Amino acid sequence: SRRPGTPGARFGGAGGSGGSGGSVGGAGGAGGNAGALSFGAGGAGGAGGGGNTTGGAGGAGGNASLLFGSGGAGGTGGHGNALQGGAGGAGGNAGMLSGSGGAGGAGGSAANANGTGTGGTGGAGGKSGVTGSGGDGGAGGFGATTAGMGGNGGNAVAVGNGGNGGNAGKAGGTAGTGGIGGILLGNNGNNGKA
């Protein structure tokens, strides 16, 4: 279930977790956005539930208030036993003037006794404000057959570092790319490990 930030709320509420069981796990709820003029942070996205075949997706992190505050973290993808791990939720964006982007959620794993399954993709990191760093990308989920891709790091705007890219779900997979550093001051984020 989703618990969004009420209008004018200082902070966005956290998203609820998705239910587990059955073929497909439930998706995690999105984090609530902070009230536009509240100077608050976005709420975290809820985790996706596990499923017998496919894991539920993690909820996206909420966005910060209009001018200030950090974005909420994305939720973790659920474990998919037979087929596919759930994707991690994207991190929320910071306020325009100041704040860091939220981190992307990790992708869910997928593996069973037959040694099959594809890991979920990690969520992308959120964008920063004029000052502040981009959010890190989430790691890809482990997959017995195919590794989940790491999420890309979020970009900084003017002063701050780009977020780091998420690692691949296992060796040989595709890692996320580091975000771009601020145009005035800041370093690019590191690429994840493949």
From TrEMBL:
Low complexity biased stretches: 185-194
Q: Coiled-coil stretches, from where to where? A: none
Which parts of the sequence are annotated with region: Disordered? 1-27, 120-145, 167-194
Q: Where is the composition biased (Gly residues)?
A: 10-27, 167-184
Give the protein name, as stated in the record: PE family protein
